[in-house]
Amino acid sequence: MEILEELQESAQYLRDRGIDEVDVAIVLGTGLGGLVEAIDIQKTWSYSQIPHLPVATVEQHFGKLIYGLLSGKKVLAWQGRFHFYEGYSMEQVVKPVRISRMLGAKTMLISNASGSLNPKFKKGGLMLIEDHINLLPDTPLRGANLVSLGERFPDMSCPYDVQLRSLLKEIAIDSGIHLDEGVYCSVAGPQLETRAEYRYLRTIGADAVGMSTVPEVIAAAHMGMPCAAVSVLTDDCNPEDLEPFNLSEVVAMAEQAEPLLTKLFVHLLGRME
Length: 273
Known about the structure:
This protein is an alpha/beta fold. The chain has helices at about 5-15, 90-95, 95-100, 160-175, 195-205, 215-220, 245-270, and strands at about 25-30, 40-45, 65-70, 75-80, 105-115, 125-135, 180-185, 210, 225-235. The protein contains 7 helices and 9 strands; from the N terminus they run H-E-E-E-E-H-H-E-E-H-E-H-E-H-E-H.
């Protein structure tokens, strides 16, 4: 079956079960699923119930789709994402973004857990992504272009919406939340980086590194959907003082920062037109 047919069937399945309108789609990363507690939930599906949708294999990703109201907006919250390192194709990785757009989503918000490369940024803090570096070995746009979704060569001069970023910075100031802004680099994983690789990533201009987000942003840009993304900086990637990776500490750090991220997104939806 062609990918476009799969997307249409997935979207139709959700329409038939009560999704009649979507204002904002939200993709929630590692340890960041608690935002759904702020949603007035109307419908919930396991990913396994939705036709042609992959199953999230990462333990910290719940694999649930939430539909409801948040700050007066109808939201579609993807509680868990898919990664290239799980063995999925890029087309599978970005299915949530494309399905959301086909259901009418006008805006995409994305969160992730990432490692801090910038010595000025503190572990446990939040970083607003203003641009990215893509070191993944593939793109969701490779192959025949899906003309009904977007143009063959989408512009990437400003993939992170200026107005949304401006609102998030205003909200952070008003709420007393420290919000850094920087460049996110996406790598394939799942192994963590060596000290030499961390030096290289910093040299080429990255402030944080992770294994997600960029494919979704590319798919959103392809479909002309404004997006914003925030990273929770869960570990320090200082090559001169590098500690062994500890997943439980990363998840705990993400959960610790989650209330601040939730506050940002809740207020952002309240200020969006």
